[in-house]
Amino acid sequence: MKATAIANSNLAFVKYWGKKDEKLRLPENGSISMILSGMETKTTVEFLANLKKDDITIDGKEDNGRVSLHLDRIRKVADIKTRAKVISKNNFPSSTGLSSSASGFAALTLAGTKAAGLNLSERKLSILARKGSGSACRSIPGGFVEWKSGDKDDESFSYTLFPKTYWDICDIVCICSSEKKDVSSTEGQKLVSSSPFYNSRIINIEQKLIRAREALKKRDFTMLGQLAEEEALEMHAIMMTSKPALLYLLPSTVQLMRFVMSERSNGTEIYFSLNTGQDVHILCKESDKDKLAKKLSEQDYVKKIIISKSGDGARLTEEHLQ
Length: 322
Ligand code: PMV
Fold this sequence. Notes:
Strand content: 15-25%
Bound molecules: (3R)-3-hydroxy-3-methyl-5-(phosphonooxy)pentanoic acid
Oligomer: single chain
Order of helices and strands: EEEEEEHEHHEEEHHHHEEHEE
Helix content: 25-40%
Shape: globular
Structural class: alpha+beta
Number of helices: 8
Mean pLDDT: 96
Distance between the termini: 14 Å
Radius of gyration: 19 Å
């Protein structure tokens, strides 16, 4: 059977950076995020008896193997041995810090399990997606999402805290270079304990999760924005002080961070966030979105912008990719 799924990327306000179990991808701490409406991966999976090995194409290129490993997990649950043909397309760049692995592994998990004849619950899909890429478990449910870290495989999953219509905050995603990062987040995360700052992060993380839940509950933009920016800076401080050091920021990334700070001191309330890579997320109120999008498009260090709001979780579609 053939199945196609669409899943969106997500932006974490409280980040996942570091694992307590490498193999199961159990995170050191919980995290809280928002699905990004404008950033989608669409994936078609078909299990075909005549294939000798998996045939995987992502954005027109053959894949390196992480997808095949995830198909093995799906085959194990479905108790089948058949190889699969997979075609996947992103409507945004990959490997520049926009979390295409989150949308990619969420779409693959839903399409793959459906194509294998399974009908898994949202919780089970989220657990399975997590093993492909941690942040992918937060791209299964919709809206504003929390990932409970959990201490066992079946306890580490994500669920919706608030639906997408709950709050109309925007994320103006700024693509500042198409340069691919040279260290993946999977590899980067293995270095966390070499940073002298990681321990203090873990000591304070529960407080941050409480702050994020409260900011969402009260729809307090200042509280959420300050926390998101603080988190991005703390995560990059840990990256930069890991051994060997990880430096994902490009000159254009720093220009965008300074743009945000300068707009804020001029009275427009905006905040930045970053993931593993150079591209920048700018959180703003709906009422400021158009003015900011125009201004950002005029900066020579911004290559492209994508405007996102809170969006849907992973879903099936009948429109298959060929
Ligand atoms: O899912 P991964 O392994 O690509 O981890 C990415 C984690 C960050 O994007 C850097 C932070 C987060 O919580 O999304």
